[in-house]
Amino acid sequence: MISFEHVHKRYPERGDALTDLSFELQAGEMAFLTGHSGAGKSTLLRLIGLLERPTRGQVIVNGRNLGALPRRKIPQHRRQVGMIFQDHRLLADRSVFDNVALPLVVAGLGHKEIGRRVRAALDQVGLLARERATPVALSGGEQQRVGIARAVVGRPPLVVADEPTGNLDPDLSLEIFRLFERFHQVGVTLLIATHDLGLVTRMPYRRLTLADGRLESDSRSR
Ligand SMILES: Nc1ncnc2c1ncn2[C@@H]1O[C@H](COP(=O)(O)OP(=O)(O)OP(=O)(O)O)[C@@H](O)[C@H]1O
């Protein structure tokens, strides 16, 4: 599902963020991405979502070489990758339903299909009863689950999450990780950047660790 081959990323103003990074993630795998602050985790995820391009090397996602992807195919690529952010980036003046529906509206789906899919996604994250609420009326954990519903509503084969539990207490964090496990069980590929080592070491998944933009280790927690 993901292949990085000798990927370098240099930000002109900050120097090297990733150096000679190579790894593969198989379809259906669930893996964590850890490493110190500034190690390059967000950069790696942004390369997968095509929010950034590598300075050198090759990134292949779901069989597509992103370096060779014509500009007009970028929206199609982004629909294959559900992205989840720490700050969930919800629209404050729109309902939960509208926030989750957004990717489907952009993709041009019909009214009925949108309703069906949005409710299925809200059901998966346990928020069906809150579809009319606006984000401010929700707790931090609920807001994050709306962000997750929005990421999976288009049924992408790949989901990447950048510090999805960064603002949550341990119980809510565990709940979010369990939700990711459920997506994993139905075949979604997941790559989750996190500082939550307490949770990572308790779960039986692969862990990629970055240090100063290099792959420091690639292991299983247990
Ligand atoms: N848009 C950008 N422009 C310039 N430099 C950047 C940009 N994004 C990241 N960097 C730099 O690249 C390096 C890697 O940052 P990145 O955000 O990928 O690390 P991270 O592991 O996600 O860190 P954190 O855990 O703090 O989020 C850092 O030195 C950072 O300052």
Automatic annotation (TrEMBL):
Pfam families xrefs: ABC_tran (PF00005)
InterPro entries: AAA+_ATPase, ABC_transporter-like_ATP-bd, ABC_transporter-like_CS, ABC_transpr_LolD-like, Cell_div_FtsE, P-loop_NTPase
A GO cellular-component term linked to this record: plasma membrane
Keyword Cell division in annotation: yes
One GO biological process term: cell division
Domain ABC transporter per the UniProt entry, residue ranges: 2-222
Compartment(s) where it occurs, according to its Swiss-Prot or TrEMBL record: Cell inner membrane; Cell membrane
GO molecular function per UniProt: ATP binding; ATP hydrolysis activity; transmembrane transporter activity
UniProt topology in membrane: Peripheral membrane protein
Glycosyltransferase recorded as keyword: no
Highest taxon in the source lineage: Bacteria
Keywords: ATP-binding, Cell cycle, Cell division, Cell membrane, Membrane, Nucleotide-binding
Subunit annotation: Homodimer. Forms a membrane-associated complex with FtsX.
Purpose of the protein: Part of the ABC transporter FtsEX involved in cellular division. Important for assembly or stability of the septal ring.
Family: Belongs to the ABC transporter superfamily.
Annotated protein name in UniProt: Cell division ATP-binding protein FtsE
